[in-house]
Amino acid sequence: MNFKLSKIKSHSFDAEAIAVCTKTNQIKRSTLLDTLNKKSGNLIAKTLSAEQFEGKAGESKVIRTYGFLACNVVFVFGAHLEKKGDLAPNELETIRCAAAKAAKRANALKIASLAFDIGQWPSGSFQEADKIQAAVEGMILGSYRFTVYQKDKAAITPSLQEVTLLVSKNSSSERRALEFGQAVAHGTSLARDLVNTPAKDMTPVEMAKRAKNLGKGISVRIYSKSEIEKMKMGSFLAVAQGSEAPPALLHMTYQPKKKSRAVIAIVGKGVTFDSGGLSLKPPASMETMKDDMSGAATVIGLMDALKTLQPNVTVHGVVAATENMPSGSAIKPGDVATAMNGKTIEILNTDAEGRLTLADALHFVIQKKPDLVIDLATLTGACLVALGERCAGVMSNDAKLLKKIRKSATKCAEMVWPLPLIEEYREDLKSPIADLKNIGGRWAGTIEAGLFLQEFVGDTSWAHLDIAGPSWASKDLPYGPKGGTGVMVRTLADFLMTY
Ligand code: BES
Ligand code: ZN
Ligand code: ZN
């Protein structure tokens, strides 16, 4: 898909399909839509009223023009937002969803060229550049398919080639927004690919190879099993010891060309398959466990986007990649592991493995003296119980950092909601024989996992995102199919760009 910006008005633009929007069923006089409607011989207005179009966000109509207009078809989208409840979608999200639908419709109708009228969309508190970025994200992500394992690829090759965004402003900031939209959408697509790849193929070493492939702009250091042993990452290794596939520690670095304003570490959980280990999961719970490296996938996808985004901060991306398998060599409930920071951990449930891998990954990156650390992990089923499939839980020891993350997430319409790190619950992590145990009590599993991780970040500003819910879509979403979502690539990209 090629993207262009143009200041030509939608009623004069030549494309097979034109996508426009309106906030009501009334086409207001002397607007661009009015001009287009008049050219169509009032076809648009008549269709909208005949089909009871109201103009609400989420509504859409496909209008065939039968030779009245140069284009074959007009897509009309509703743009009126009724705000309801917490985390309600904003103007940009309405554009993303509409853009995704326009691209999907164009492909379904075998259309090769589409014009999407940006200028007409309500802006809210956003700029034209933000709207451009949102439309690009929506179109690329809405067209995303994971076809690697499908034989008949020709049948699924999309028809849509040329997309022109019709804008009222076309200066460097608008052009940059287009480029950024492409970069974050490609980073997100990369993350989706990594998650969707079966665990048989997405082994820790394969994930390391994919990180190496990031290419120019990101330096990558991979630590092998023996190097991980030398670093005494006993907690990480305890998880890895049951698997035939060797673990790998991935350290990716982005260094800005200009003076770096801060050092930021992003750590992702990289369990390429979570069987539960000897605390084996039931079959149904294991079905989607190739997604237990979604945090890692997001880190890799983000690093990919940074090559284009070029924020003025140094970014360390770290992943402790391993499988979690039951075997004769697997860690046993009751065993004690010594983490890289010297703390001993009694491992009572081998299915609470994410925190064990993250403990050493967090301690490793703290050695780089970052100004802040953000980790992302498909950490607890309890987070799904609390917040559902679409919303991540966020915990932090730094109120300002939490606020910044929430701001970026809101702009990107990736839902996050804070949970408290209740000090009193730390009691539940005490072990009679070691410094800590890897499971807490019966309740507040998400918070207790957060408290466990906090033991490994010291005083560093830190935030933990539990993405167990939104990392995986159990049904198609407005701009992504069922499967890996690549959640938080866009939020973290925005966070780094505005830091
Ligand atoms: N990877 C799982 C968490 C998970 C569950 C992610 C469902 C996505 C969907 C994690 O390693 C796990 O198994 N956690 C346990 C922790 C428990 C043993 C304390 C859980 O949530 O049941
Ligand atoms: Zn587990
Ligand atoms: Zn897990």
- Chemical compounds bound to the protein: ligand BES, zinc ion
**How big is the Rg?**
24 Å
Number of strands: 19
- Biggest pleated sheet: 8 strands, mixed
- The helix-and-strand class reads alpha/beta
> What is the distance, rounded to the nearest whole angstrom, between the alpha carbons of the first and last residues?
31 Å
Task: Return the average pLDDT rounded to an integer.
Answer: 97
**Outline, from the CA principal axes?**
elongated
Number of helices: 15
Low-confidence stretches: none
How much strand content do the residues show? 15-25%
Task: Please characterize this protein's 3D structure.
This protein has helices at 32-39, 43-50, 91-108, 128-142, 172-196, 204-212, 225-230, 234-240, 283-286, 294-309, 354-366, 381-387, 399-412, 445-454, 489-497; strands at residues 2-6, 17-22, 60-64, 73-78, 113-117, 162-166, 219-223, 248-254, 263-274, 314-324, 335-338, 344-347, 372-377, 392-396, 416-418, 436-437, 461-466, 472-473, 483-484. With 499 residues, it is α/β, with parallel strands linked by helices. The strands form 4 sheets. Strands 7-8-10-9-13-17-14-15 form an 8-stranded mixed β-sheet, sandwiched between helices. Strand 14 (392-396), helix 13 and strand 15 form a beta-alpha-beta unit. Helix 4 packs parallel to helix 5 and helix 10 packs across helix 15 (489-497). It is elongated. The mean pLDDT is 97. It binds ligand BES and zinc ion (2 copies). Ligand BES is lined by residues 274, 292, 349, 351-354, 378-382, 384, 439, 445, 468. Residues 274, 292, 349, 351-354, 378-382, 384, 439, 445, 468 line the site of ligand BES.
